[in-house]
Amino acid sequence: MTSNNKSEPIVDHLFRHQYGKMVAILARIFGLEHLDLIEDAIQDTFLKASLQWREKQPEKPEAWLTQAAKNRVLDLLRQIQARQKREAAFPHASSALEINEQFLDPEIDDAQLRMIFVACHPALSSSEQIAFALKAISGFSGKEIASALMQKEDSIKKRLQRARKKIQDEGIAMHFPEPDEMESRMQAVMQIIYLIFNEGFHSNKPDSLVDKELCGEALRLCKLLLSRKTFRSGSLYALFALLCYNAARLDAKVSDDEVLDLKQQDRQKWYAPLIDLGHDALYRSLYDFKDRSAYHFGALIASEHIRAANFESTNWPQILNYYQEMYQYLPSASIPLSKAIIYLQIQEAHQAKAELEAIEIKDLEQRSYLYYATWAELHLMENHADKATKMLKIAIEHCSNKLEEDYLKKKLASIIT
Fold this sequence. Notes:
The chain is an all-alpha fold.
């Protein structure tokens, strides 16, 4: 959503924060089969706002948008009914009073939760799920989704088209899963939330190391799920704890357009209220529920970093143990890579080399540059500057983020000079 006038910032801000709510509400009223029409209607509403707010913005912009959306709902209702030529044939027809009730806060939350489960429906592939979630729930444009997922915009457009077609073909409705499906569906929901956060925490945008919008959206969705007792579990609290701990460090990750690793970060910049939320959520995940997941160990690892007074006092052996246990739940190539980095921190090059040699590079996908950078660190530790130089050059070739690339180039220059 873009505009070329002074109302642009507030309209863009509201578009980001209200789009998902409006899609969810309207989809619940009209049905998912009218998703294209609904998205067009919301675009119309925000376009109307960008034009009418050029000279004077309303005192309560969100209320203005809500009212405009309600009016647009009624317009849509009349259009669809007219097109079908008989009012009774429209299965989702609602009275104006019923529509007003759909815009109450509890109903908005309910509609968004239902839309989360639509986005994570098993009929959609994982790549379609995350693209559809970013579009329908979070209001990201096709270009923004393409940037976040490092895909071409046309590819994202096709994914969204496939997702919408599957939703129609499968007759997917905005229903919560049945009790016997809840656990598996929640796994997909949590994975999507984690992926959204991770895309923000390790932004693939060329000129930005972090994307706070994505991180904030993942936290919002997780908190929304936790607001319902039905969806609460140890895994969901653990995921929320992990997101809180990592989000607390966002402002310390970059300084003067340079990437700062954990050792360089100013721990005074870590955001205490989010850390406190993380501690509370981790405690509840461990003591109020019996289920365990990779999110538990991710949160425990993050908590060890948070609790350390400084980098040197980090409890690396404990973190290694947590990674070992995490691997039982999530056998991902990123775990041996993380262990290799830790072994380098504690000067155990032999162990680091063993972990790196066990990794299939293709399994790391966009993070493969970290693999080569870690090999470079290992070679430096063993005083093989020529090998380290070679690995750093490969890492730079595989790095898509400019700030990360600058960091690697700076390291390379320090070796060569």
